[in-house]
Amino acid sequence: MKIIHCADLHLDSKLNANLPVDKAKERRQELLLTFSRLVDYAVKEGVEKIIISGDMFDTKKVLTTTKNAVLRLIKENSNIDFFYLSGNHDEDNFISSLEDEIPLNLKVFTEEFKTFDFGDFTISGIKLTNDNYITFYNNVKLDQNKINILSLHGQVSKYTVDNPDVINITELKNKNIDYLALGHIHSYQKEKLDDRGVYCYSGCLEGRGFDECGIKGFSLIEIEDGKLNSTFIPFAKRTIYEIEHDITGKTWGQIIKDIKTELSLIKDTSLIKVVLTGEHDLDLEMDLFYLTSILNNDFYFVKIKDESKLKINLNDFALDPSLKGEFIRTVMSDISLSEQEKNDIIMCGINALNGEKL
User: How far apart are alpha carbons 352 and 346 in whole angstroms?
Assistant: First the structure.
């Protein structure tokens, strides 16, 4: 028996915080297409169950086209059971809009603890709410002679917290759980639950922003001869990277060359954020627009963030009679400003004095 555990697809995400309008639209479509590819993978590999542990959608206002595409995938693959648990972003819009049209192969977890029994293994789940998040642990009663999978959505903790989005992992120990299928955290994590089972965040299928860097995919569960094993399967169309690059002591030409070398092993389909760090001299002529432009020719999308510091020795300008010298001395001696503020003000001022755009 093969089972896919995925979560946090966040279909219909806006994705416009970092991306231009055209690429944000394209990435929204790619999120849906990746789920479609997941179903194709399931058919090809003989997967019989797909568990979606919350946040399939990003908002309660799901586009009709997106909802219909998901529904069509489920209906057209009636030999696969889909287990749907809504998360804190879903707000039940998808299921409530189906009314009496819920396909037989779509199994929905509600606010009541529910178990689907398949003979030698079970799949259970519950949507955590303000009314049940403290008491539901008492309802987790699973047969010790079966392989038991439990689906939940939330942040694990070792303690009870006054929040329905937090799961007390301690309360789930010794409950005959073999695999706790979790959603909410967007990176893959698998840890030991107790002497019997594990808990696992499958992570999201596609990273959406630079806070979701790294390899993304799903967890493939296999049950054979009374044993359960799971493996992470990388699956995203695009990978998101954040790279720090120290520019200390380098010329602008060397910086560009070194960054291109550093990124040379990354696929051109990727999204990359390059963060410039270290210190630079006042006379370093940085052109972030140019750097962004040439890197965007090599990758799907590139963003540059300058976090480098301006290296200034006030003694070098102590006797400088020029306007620049006076300006730098005034800013550097202002005790009300932080070092970052001084850095930003001086760079802005120097650009203005040189006739550059601010």
Answer: 10
